[in-house]
Amino acid sequence: MPYALGIDIGGTFTDIVLFDPANGRQFNWKQLTTPDEPSEGVIRGTATLIERSGVKPSEINRVVHATTLFTNAMIERKGASTGLITTEGFRDVLEIGRERKFELYDVFIEMPEPLVPRRLRFEVTERLSPKGEVVTPLDLDGLAKAADALVAEDVQSIAIVFLHAYANPVHEKQAADFVRKRHPGVFVTASCEVAPEIREFERASTAVANAYVKPLADAYLERLAVRLKGLGIEAPLFLMVSSGGLTHIDEAKRNPIQLLESGPAAGALAAAFFGERSEADNVLAFDMGGTTAKLSVVDDGEPLVAYSFEAARTKRFKEGSGLPIKISTIELIEIGAGGGSIAHLDGMGLMKVGPESASSKPGPACYGLGGDKPTVTDANLLLGYLNPAFFAGGTMDIDVGLAEGAMGGLVEDTKLQTVDLAWGIHNIVNENMASAARVHIAERGKDLRKYALVTTGGGGPLHGYHVARKLGLTRMVCPPSAGVASALGLLIAPARVDRVATIARRLDAVDWTALEARFKELEKEAAEVIAQTGIGLDGLVLSRFADMRYVGQGFELVIDIPSDTFGETPFETAFAAFSAAYRDIFAINPPTGAAEIVNIRVVAKASVGDVDLSAAKPITASGSAPTAHRQVYFSESDGFVETPVYGRHALPVGQVFQGPAVIEEPESTLIVGPAGRFAAEANGNITVHIAA
Questions:
Q1: Which one, of 223, 318, 240, lies nearest residue 10 by Cα?
Q2: Which has the closest alpha carbon to 285: 274, 269, 299, 296?
Q3: Is the separation of the CB atoms in 241 and 258 below 8 Å?
């Protein structure tokens, strides 16, 4: 039977899953990420998994990949040498930005450095009006000089961003074609190809970011495809995009900015599936890996989607401190807490954990790869939460002595016992994650009490119980093989294409016939990209959205709209839909009937294959006796206790758990705290019902 192969590159581990949808057979492997050459870890891990599983490469009919490579390139400023060609007078838009400080009273504020230095930003003569009318024709001689000057500076990639190109892309397309023909070895990105939306700074930032990672993406994806074929895998390669869908390799090369948040998006899809399988439609998807933790909200089985985010922030949790990127993405908050997050004392002598991470090189001290700083993984090992003989599925050894040695400096500085310090690190991480979740939920007007916590990643199940307690949740769900859930989530993602166009009209001035025609144009473009993946369009689903606001406001709400646009009474229908959405968020509507449509959006989705995780082998219970006992620290007992450890196939059924617990990956081993009992549900997930 054909297998599907999912590959997710994280900051510490590369997770690889082989899944047979016919009978639910699943093989997992965790490989340390090779940051200097990410494809090396992918190929090494895939070859190992194929050998261990006995699956033939020819039996793999689909490969789906997610990676943080391009995000890391922007954070570390390791992308291509990039130039910018823009309208005369707009050379400095990347530095002017919004003219707002994210820290009002910080006189030493550090704003994000533009990806293109000023010496590589050139202007050309051309001008369009806000309506898209040509005011000044494009000066091709000036364009040639600018392009030649950039190539003379050894620029690998060029972004072209002209004023008001969202209203009429004629000059950008003309310029892009001209530069491609004149310098065929240079990568070219026009803003109309990646972010055809109003707002010059955000559009310029997105186009430049795409240009910055485009050569890297082209080389990496081509190299990966060739090396997979070298293993005998002839299956098509799909890439996960940030919005929770898949695209084909050529589209990913053309527009790699779509892939920035691909891994976390897959984790949210997996959490939505396993939440639904446990009859929890509203879940907080909590994915904690080796480098960071991510949290996303799933309402009625669907992760929330945002239409912009910030990359490469100078202050990780400060909005406005990063580079704005206008793409569709599953709405996530990143918490600087992963297994490799380093514990330290700040200038005031307070304990902090993260955001600096040991990553995979050198990794936590217990890995024995040269790390010597105390991390969350070291703390969890010292607390008894990790089995040193079977860490990451037995793919690597970890050393308790090295973990204890790494704590020595902090033990001396804090005058705490090693175990108290380790618990403090664990608890601080839990509080950081719970605090971020509270803010995230409150900003969206949601009620935490209706959510269950679905834990994925290697660290999510370890920390989930205490995070849920801090949030006041009553239910926690842990799927089987939670440590590779993101890689598994890749296999259930549909193909997805997002398209957007700026309208910028008051509702009472909209030409509804023209608006319908524009929607159909976007739907046609999206369907063509879907078709290029090789997928039939029989199952194509098209959805329409509109960005709307009251006249005079600076930001919009994205609302669902009917497939026939707004029906027979378009003005009234549109205004009523917007008013209802506004009231849901802000509880009250301003006393005005003047609203406007800024952008329209189309989302096209189609099923890629027949992968259905319902066939995944569930957690089954063959008895109620613990498979082992070990000393585990629980704060509820003020110390270590001899604790029963239940392996995946030794779970007692039918008991409602109340009390502290830790779930250890990769085999969903549940470590039961004092007086704890739990339920292994028939749906195959471990559900821990949190004590009141």
A1: 240
A2: 296
A3: yes
Global pTM reads 0.86
Asked if 661 and 690 touch (Cβ cutoff 8 Å), the reply is no
Q: How far apart are CA 179 and CA 157, in angstroms?
A: 11
Most confident of the following: 280-294, 609-623, 662-676: 280-294
Q: CA-to-CA distance for 205 and 327, rounded, in angstroms?
A: 11
Residues 6+ apart with CB under 8 A from 404: 382, 418
pLDDT value at residue 679: 46
CA distance 43 to 232: 11
Question: What totals of helices (H) and strands (E) does the chain contain, helices first?
Answer: 17, 34
Task: DSSP for 191-252, please give it.
Answer: HHHH---S-HHHHHHHHHHHHHHHHHHHHHHHHHHHHHHHTT--SPEEEE-TTS-EEEHHHH
- The end-to-end CA distance of the chain, in Å, is 47
* Per-residue pLDDT tens over the stretch 496-555: 999 999 999 999 999 999 999 999 999 999 999 888 877 766 788 999 999 999 999 988
Report the chain's C-alpha Rg in angstroms: 26
Strands annotated E in 300-456: 302-303, 305-306, 309-311, 323-325, 329-330, 332-335, 341-345, 351-357, 452-456
Predicted confidence at residue 388, as pLDDT, reads 83
Give the 3-state secondary structure of residue 440: helix
pLDDT at 681 over 50: no
- Structure tokens of 329? 């993405």
Torsion angle defined by CA atoms of residues 136, 137, 141 and 147, in that order, rounded to the nearest 10 degrees: 90
Both tokens assigned to 176 = 């892009």
Q: Tell me which of 476 and 623 has the higher pLDDT.
A: 476
Query: CB burial class (10 A; 0-12, 13-18, 19+) of residue 451?
Result: buried
Helix or strand or coil: residue 136? strand
Task: Give the span between the Cα atoms of 173 and 160, in whole angstroms.
Answer: 9
Query: What is the Cα–Cα distance from 687 to 475, expressed in whole angstroms?
Result: 7
140: Cβ contacts below 8 Å, ≥ 6 apart? 178
State the Cα–Cα distance between residues 572 and 570, nearest whole angstrom. Answer: 6
What is the structure's pLDDT at 465? Answer: 83
User: Is 2:61 a contact under the CB 8 Å cutoff?
Assistant: yes
Q: pLDDT, tens digit, for every residue of 235-246?
A: 989 999 999 999
Name beta bridge partners: 66.
Answer: 8
* Among 150, 1, 23, 27, CA closest to 488: 27
* Tokens matching residue 322: 């990063």
Express each pLDDT in 317-334 by its tens digit.
Answer: 677 888 999 999 998 887
Q: What is the pLDDT of residues 633-654, one digit of tens each?
A: 887 777 887 877 776 656 554 4
Sequence-ordered strand ranges (E) for 367-458: 452-456
